[in-house]
Design a protein that fits this description.
164 residues; 6-stranded antiparallel β-sheet; Immunoglobulin-like; mainly beta; 1 helix; 3-stranded antiparallel β-sheet
Length: 164
């Protein structure tokens, strides 16, 4: 009886230690570099612990005024009848720009992905071309969060734009 109690205690202790180790590790998605030119580097990491986001920028522009094609892809874990974007651009920790926008307002589907259901793969193809060159050089941090009508996080990304 004593050996059975001792071995059960040992098994329980090892289980608790293994669960503690699993939950204490710093879980992060890999850092993705989508653009690396002489003047511009763009990298990002998903800040959603359950899902990574696929993002490409092609071709990698030498200047922000050069045209580029964007593609974003992710699987939906919740429906998006309504979708809200929150983006913050920081330079050296100071806020440069903040944008909050309804991408899919109630009863007004602006984009083809509005109304998509759980389990669907969303792909967004767009082009990008800045109308002005940023006057400041440096490492910008871009934080983007997208939530649905139930305040469920659909996507979350932390990106770094290094402009030389």
């Amino acid at each position: 009886m004593a050996t059975c109690l001792c071995s059960n205690t040992l098994v329980l202790a090892l289980f608790i230690i293994s669960v503690h180790l699993v939950y204490c590790q710093d879980v992060q998605w890999p850092l993705h570099t989508v653009c690396n030119s002489d003047t511009l580097t763009v990298s990002y990491r998903s800040c959603d612990l359950l899902q990574d986001v696929g993002f490409t920028l092609h071709p990698c522009p030498n200047k922000l005024t050069d045209p580029a094609n964007l593609r974003l892809a992710l699987f939906l874990r919740q429906p998006i009848d309504e979708l809200y974007l929150s983006a913050v651009l920081l330079l050296r920790g100071m806020e440069v720009l903040r944008k909050n926008e309804a991408l899919c307002p109630p009863h007004f589907p602006r984009f083809t992905f509005c109304g998509s259901r759980r389990g669907e793969l969303i792909t967004i193809d767009s082009s990008f071309e800045s109308i002005t060159e940023l006057p400041i050089k440096g490492d910008f941090t871009l934080r983007v969060t997208v939530v649905n009508q139930d305040d469920f996080q659909i996507a979350c990304v932390n990106a770094t734009l290094s402009i030389v």
